[in-house]
Amino acid sequence: MNTISTEKLKTGLKTKFIGQEIKHYESIPSTNAEGRRLAEEGVDEGTVVISEEQTQGRGRRGRAWSSPKGGIWLTIILRPKIPPSYAPVITLLTGIVCAKTIEKVTKLKPTLKWPNDVHIKGKKVCGILTELSSEPDMVKYALVGLGINANNKISDFPKELQAQVTTLITELKQPINRVDFFQNLLMEFERLYIPFTKDPIVNIPKIIKSWCGISDTIGRDVKIETITGTIAGFATEISEDGSLIVVTKSGEKERIIAGDCIYLDQDNE
Ligand code: BTN
After folding, report:
1. Could you tell me the distance, in angstroms and rounded to a whole number, from the CA of residue 126 to the centre of ligand 1?
2. Angstrom distance (rounded) from CA 73 to CA 50
3. Cα–Cα distance, 216 to 268 (Å, whole number)
4. Burial of 16 from C-beta contacts in 10 A (0-12 / 13-18 / 19+)
């Protein structure tokens, strides 16, 4: 496995502020947890925390996130001057960034599953966990955690996950250069993030359009498990706050802010 160092990650990284400060670790519990500690300490916007492995990686809805060596486990610390209601768009934007980077670096064709998964051929290759610290009308900071199954074997993951996940090395049949991937990811992130924060009103519709263009959720029969219950229907669009719009059998339009999406025409996604 090629080794990563802060110096390698920074050399040739052409960004204004994303990744201009990098904290690289061999092993930590969670880059999001470390990101929160650093954000509270007052580090600059764009600081990136990356670890070779995580011992207590966190997924959405309190789940564990398996993070063995060979993957790309990182958190970007952001200080966007936006209201908290716009924050779900950061997750959509990050999904686009991740899919585009995978396509650029590997020529594979990933798809996006609402709200936060990147898939290749129906299997999860990347998950995104955006965590916020916020005042009622303004975000204090956002932690964008990205877990990319890169140079990992499927057998590196727990048995119960193996049928649902894929990794870049598995799809490509050769390892990726993680430094190159990381740099492309951060450059693409900055390219979309700067206009989003400068003018959210103009840019959110563009982000949603771009997300829908790569998504495999829109135009699909889905079942969404939310904390208050399950809603089944046809996924039609994403609204400006990142919610999924589902039209139920009885013709009701439901707006779903958060939940787990299951494709009813396929049980392996
Ligand atoms: C999910 O699909 O449930 C989201 C997974 C997010 C995992 C990443 S790995 C880097 C960062 N640190 C964490 O503890 N979680 C996120």
Report:
1. 9
2. 6
3. 13
4. exposed
**CA-33 nearest atom, ligand 1:** 14
Cβ-contact 233, 253 below 8 angstroms: no
Between CA 73 and CA 86 the distance in angstroms is 24
Give the whole-angstrom CA distance, residue 130 versus residue 90: 8
CA 140: distance to chain centroid? Answer: 20
Gap between the Cα atoms of 18 and 184, Å rounded: 11
CA of 63 from ligand 1 middle (Å) equals: 9
Buried b (16+ CB within 10 A) or exposed e, 226-257: eeeeebebebeebeeebbbbbeeeeeeeeebe
Report the amino acid identity of residue 204.
I
36 Cβ inside 6 Å of ligand 1: no
pLDDT in tens, the chain (269 residues): 567 899 999 999 999 999 999 999 999 999 999 999 999 999 999 999 999 999 999 999 999 999 999 999 999 999 999 999 999 999 999 999 999 999 999 999 999 999 999 999 999 999 999 999 999 999 999 999 999 999 999 999 999 999 999 999 999 999 999 999 999 999 999 999 999 999 999 999 999 999 999 999 999 999 999 999 999 999 999 999 999 999 999 999 999 999 999 999 875 44
Residue pair 94/189 in contact (Cβ under 8 Å)? The answer is yes
**The ligand 1 atom nearest the CA atom of 74:** 10
3-class state of residue 255 by DSSP = strand
CA distance 105 to 90: 22
Distance CA 200, CA 197 (A): 6
Ligand 1 mean position to 71 CA, how many Å? 12
**What's the pTM value of the predicted model, to 2 decimals?**
0.96
